[in-house]
Design a protein that fits this description.
Layout (H helix, E strand, L loop, with lengths): L2 H7 L5 E6 L4 E6 L3 H12 L8 H9 E2 L12 H4 L4 H14 L4 H7 L4
Antiparallel strand pairs: 1-2, 2-3
Helix pairs in contact: 3-5
């Protein structure tokens, strides 16, 4: 197998589990691939700084089942806004950590310095 084939076959996207007692379920938070990350950064830049949907949208993009498949659809964002804020914030922080999205990176993605 060539170097190219080995690199393209590598499973390099991290996934972390988090038991959510409020839901009685384990949610897996996955790392975005390059295409997803760039699309998310474009969306963030297009939003007002105080957008209510930022954390929920990141959760929609990163919440997965044990196979790494998406749990939510984009159409679920409005419903997720109605969930327990402690859970959403906790999972949003984990999603930011897994995807290495610091406050500085979020600000930079919005085009600010």
């Amino acid at each position: 197998m060539s170097l190219r084939d080995r690199i393209l076959a590598a499973k390099d996207l991290k996934i972390e589990s988090e038991f959510v007692p409020e839901w009685g379920e384990t949610v897996y938070i996955r790392m975005l691939n390059v295409e997803e990350r760039l699309a998310h950064e474009r969306w963030v830049r297009s939003q007002p700084e105080d957008s209510d949907e930022m954390v929920v949208r990141l959760l929609w993009l990163t919440a997965a089942d044990e196979n790494g498949d998406w749990v939510f659809r984009e159409s679920d964002v409005k419903e997720l806004l109605k969930k327990n804020p402690d859970v959403i914030i906790r999972l949003g922080r984990l999603a930011a950590k897994v995807n290495r999205l610091s406050e500085t990176e979020v600000t930079a993605a919005k085009g600010e310095s």
